[in-house]
Amino acid sequence: MLILQQHLLNDSFLEKNTLLFLLFIISFVLFSCTASRIDDFSPANKLAPSKLKEDVVVLKKTLEANHPSLYWYTPKDSIDWYFNTTLNSIQDSLTELQFRNKVAKLIARIHCGHTTVRSSKGYAKYFSKHKTPQFPLTIKAWRDSLVVVGNAIKTDSIFKRGTVITSINGMPNRAILDSMFQFISMDGYSDNFKYQLVSIYFPLFYNIAFGLKDTNTISYIDSAGIEKTGIIKNFYPIPDTSRNRVVNNIPFPKPTRKQLRAARRQNSNNLVFDSANTGYLHIITFSGGGLRKLFRESFETLHERHTSNLVIDLRENGGGNIGASANLTRYVIKRPFTVADTVEAISRSFKYGEYIHPVWIYKTLMFFFSKKQKDGMYHFGHLEHHLYQPKKVLQFNGSIYILQGGFTFSAASMFVAHLKGQPNVTVVGEESGGGSYGNTSVHLPSLILPNSQIEIILPIYRIVNDATRPKNGRGVLPDVYVMPSSDAIKNGIDIKMQKVRELIDARQRLMSKKN
Asked: What is the pLDDT of residues 378-393, one digit of tens each?
């Protein structure tokens, strides 16, 4: 499930009318709240230490009561220590950003990619109206490398696409990345997700980690291989006076309806072919309507054209609906499968429900669809026991190449994990951001801290994809690794897709020799 997408459910077995009713109720609850507190917001406002500490205590108690993977990768004594350290560090009044940074560092210690921190609604609304300076460069990050992808200052002639950066404002690349990474939650120890998120939101994370100066001194490698230093000012965006504003001022912004519609439109036009009888299926999300029809029509077309090779590109897919992911899996998998070995929650009651929104929806869903088992956990039986069968008529039997990267997350990484190891499947790219062993997701209510009003996404169910896999905190590993390249970025070459085409050509040459 896309960490930037929050939905009522990540499964699709409920009746459509029920879902529509629930979504209507949620919309009513969300939009009927008073706006006075939001309208009075200023980023300079500060809360007293006692109020902030109260929020931290509420956060800890709520996580202990309902987060099923709180101690999955970090033992309890360490979690307790991190909370105590955070409490002791709050000695003065703080702005929301200062406090949110502390909470984000704390949450990141859990190593759960679905447990994320967002700004308050007042903060988001304020910055949708008030534009602020931004770090001007979009940067691709991997290992210790930083390479310019885009420059908001169009008149700048130094920092062009492909420029290799060695330091920013006197700080080397590794120190910059480590400072940003401390605010990002991830599944286990799959740092590749952090690299990808920083690559998408580098200006944002730079501002969060360091704040902005009037100008930035950047060391870089010129075309002759010589390290030089240049200066670039910040970018001042033009105020957006349109009604449909996209707010990108927080680490994990919730997608607007307009963004989701655009994603669905892109999904609906994603099957293309080349002269080598290869189909390219680009799926950027497992969320939204129309996916079942899209998959059926795509595989009908693949069969009509007698396609030999299929490339499924999930590099931009942060997940979404588990049911949609399972549906796509049925077209390419060779064996029956379940969504996961285990889908379990600590409780179906919410001891601190006054801070969870909308709590009654989740209590109702859990009452009907979870049941307490002998292990004391509440299991989502449908997801554990429903056996999905491969498609009989439209099963694709050719060679399959799955492209993945650090942003391949949740339901997308679950799709890859089901297929990895199948003889006709080759996974190409980088380690997925989503955990191979499992994750914590399905229901994702919002925990609103009472004083600061910042929002914590609280996943309710722990998913073990396959209990036979090692619980080592890693993502799904590719069969063929392809890492980024500064030359490829400079020249606009998709080296992962290039590698896939090389693999297809090599296979075709081999088959020709055999024939």
From this structure: 999 989 889 999 998 9
**Taking the CB of residue 397, how many other CB atoms lie within 10 A of it?**
11
Residue with tokens 């990474």: 181
Give tens-digit pLDDT for 56-84: 999 999 999 999 999 999 999 999 999 99
DSSP classification of residue 388: B
Q: For residues 96 and 45, what is the distance between their CA atoms, to the nearest angstrom? A: 7
What phi, psi does 371 have (nearest 5°)? -145, 140
CA–CA separation, 482 vs 429, rounded Å?
Answer: 5
The SS3 assignment for 371 reads: strand
Predicted pLDDT of residue 7: 36
Helix (H, G, I), strand (E, B) or coil at 358: coil
Q: Using CB atoms within 10 A of its CB, is residue 331 exposed (0-12), middle (13-18) or buried (19+)?
A: buried
Question: How many C-alpha atoms does 232 have within 13 Å on its Cβ side?
Answer: 24
Contact yes or no for 67/110 (Cβ under 8 A): yes
Write out the two tokens for 298: 């795509």
Full DSSP string of 294-328? HHHHHHHHHHHTT-SEEEEE-TT---B-HHHHHHH
- Judge whether residue 34 has pLDDT over 70: no
Provide CB contacts within 8 A for 242, sequence distance 6+: none
pTM of the model: 0.85
Per-residue pLDDT reduced to its tens digit, 481-515: 999 999 999 999 999 999 999 999 888 888 777 76
Interstrand relation of 356-357 and 446-448 (parallel, antiparallel or unpaired): antiparallel
Residues 6+ apart with CB under 8 A from 389: 330, 336
Q: What is the pLDDT of residue 510?
A: 81
pLDDT value of position 259: 62
Q: Which residue is associated with the tokens 């500064």? A: 486
Q: What is the dihedral of CA 136, 140, 146, 151, to 10 degrees?
A: -20
pLDDT band at residue 88 using 50, 70 and 90 as cut-offs: very high
Beta strand spans in 411-499 (E): 425-429, 438-441, 446-448, 455-457, 461-464, 480-481
* Contacts of residue 166, Cβ cutoff 8 Å, sequence gap at least 6: 146, 172, 173, 219, 220, 221, 227
* CA-angle at 475, arms to 444 and 164, nearest 5°: 105
Neighbours of 201 (CB within 10 A): 21
Residue 387's φ and ψ, nearest 5 degrees, are -95, 115
pLDDT band at 277 (very low <50, low <70, confident <90, very high): confident
Residue 28: phi and psi, rounded to 5, are: -60, -45
Picking from 204, 288, 205, the residue whose alpha carbon sits closest to that of residue 246 is 204
Q: Are 404 and 476 in contact (CB under 8 A)?
A: yes
Element (H, E) at 402: strand 399-404
454: left (phi over 0), alpha (psi -120 to 50) or beta: beta
371 DSSP β-pair partners: 379
